[in-house]
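Reading is simple: each integer encodes one residue's backbone shape. The lines below illustrate:
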Amino acid sequence: MVGGRPGRRLAPALVSIPPLNCPHSEDYASEMQPLGGLGPQSLVRTGREEHMQLRTTALFALMAGLALAGGLASRSATAPPVVGQLNVKIHEWDTPTKGAHPHDPAVAPDGSLWFTEQMVSKLGRLDPASGTIIEFPLKGKNDGPHGLVADREGNIWYTGNFAGYIGKLDPHTGKITQYKMPDDKAADPHTAVFDAQGMLWFTVQIGNMVGRLDPKTGKIELKVVPTKDARPYGIQISSKGVPFFCEFGTNKIAKIDPQTMEIKEYPLAQGVLPRRLAIAADDRIYFTDYQGGNLGRLDPVSGTAKMWPSPGGAGANPYGIAITPDGMVWYSESGVTPNTLIRFNPKTEEFAGTDIPSGGGTVRNMTATPDGRIYLACSGVNKVAIVEPAR
């Protein structure tokens, strides 16, 4: 069920698919396939697909245990809200390489859409005006690029999730610089973000750490998260320059002091598993409760949180999230088929949504542009997308 009444479907988006200058990509088989009996210590690099499958299986086993212990408390008894029609245009492009599994998108200073091609060890750049995609192969054949972010000069920084390093690509020369993790336990750098001073902050999911990299010196500092198996995931910077991150392995959001690197955790309701977050202009934190099917908001001043059931219901699996300059909160529901794009108005607490034309294949992350568009990576269907809200 999507919306507030049985059998109701979200209104389709107005679809515009520009001419493609690349071959059509076949659907990529989702890594969310059960491989029972595996724990976190079973994670091995025996191949790209198996590597990701093992990580996901171990994490989901942990999530299931937490949910059972918490009595699935995050699953609200409130019926999912009625969802209005979302008036947007969604443009989609195929990735040139089959099976690329585009994981995260980023917006560069020139407005181009960059994305990681996790399963083929490449980065991609889309020119939104022409629809042209250029790919940049990385040094290793199994680096597993995951998160990425552009700096002020237009260099693209990415996490080598399978290879234990942070990478920097100069798009003008194609030069790649690698910064290896100083601790072997930090084998899987995950999501990265710059603060206003140009410091790169990142999460290390299985390694259970948060780190920072100084681009001027190349120095990397790591901090272990206080909670065991917290699985640090999405990370963003507040207006005060403080990094906040999700602890996807438990029911907490945390912040790290940019001076001392001390970590403070904010407990949420039992059963809530925050996966990604976005920070509003007032520094309140919106997050996707992947396990409970909710949109959440944390006030870091009071430590209180408010939850709204997602339109797709308890199994909606909200995932990628972003906030546009007008204050609207956007996120994807990855547990419904096709995936949906949801917009939440914090002032009225109203939801609007639409299906993603290609199905999405799990939209794992998204980012907002300065002019209010949304960039998506549709991993399971090997596409990237741009969402244009109606003006």
